[in-house]
Fold this protein.
Amino acid sequence: MTVFPARRPLIAASERTPVPVHPDPRPQAYPAVRPSPLEWARRRRAQKEARRLELAGNRAVARIEQLGPAWHTVDWPRAALAASAEREVIGAYRREQAGFLTIGPGGVFAVSVADHGRSRVLIAGDVVQINGRRPPYVSEARREAKLASKALSRAVGHTVPVVPVLTFVGTGKISVYGLPQDCLVAPYHDLDRLLMANGSRISPQTAEKLSAVARHPSTWLSGSAADQYRWYGPGESAARRPRAVARPT
């Protein structure tokens, strides 16, 4: 005869001992949020515009590199310095331009690069017309040159004049009915000859020193913000700075 063990009494669910549940140590992957077609199209357009401006700037820099080692090209925060509430409308056109500083024997130049593609460009003094639009390229080039001159003069301690330069990159025709004053205008393939035509105004040593000043981040800080920081040279640190000894009272 088969003898079966006695059955255990059933335990109610409320009387059972809870079993601790350990969280999964692996990070949970959140589902990717797909952008809307409109957001995707805007993002793709912004990326395409950024690549187009980068290529246009590289073409202009390549022409300047043909001038030799005495000329220096410096990338400066032009958009950050010129950002203000009263220039929000003009700032939209600034995003359509590339820009950099060129320092050489001819002086200091603030180069603004505009890519017009295959469109025709009409220039009549301070007015630039492309596809029926009149972006303020000339006035923006002058503003940026003034900002760069103000920052460099504050850093050096002497007045550093900066010449605004507006250059166009593209295959479209450029018709000139009058050049603007106090602003150099030329297509990118004539940019090197335009800068050389300015003559020799500073020595190569001075140009090299000015380029070093332009590359320093403290140069582009405002006066109130620059006073809050202390910049150390190569091999220096805050630990090597001598501390002030408190005098006994």
User: Anything to note?
Assistant: Residues 128 and 134 are 5 Å apart (CA to CA).
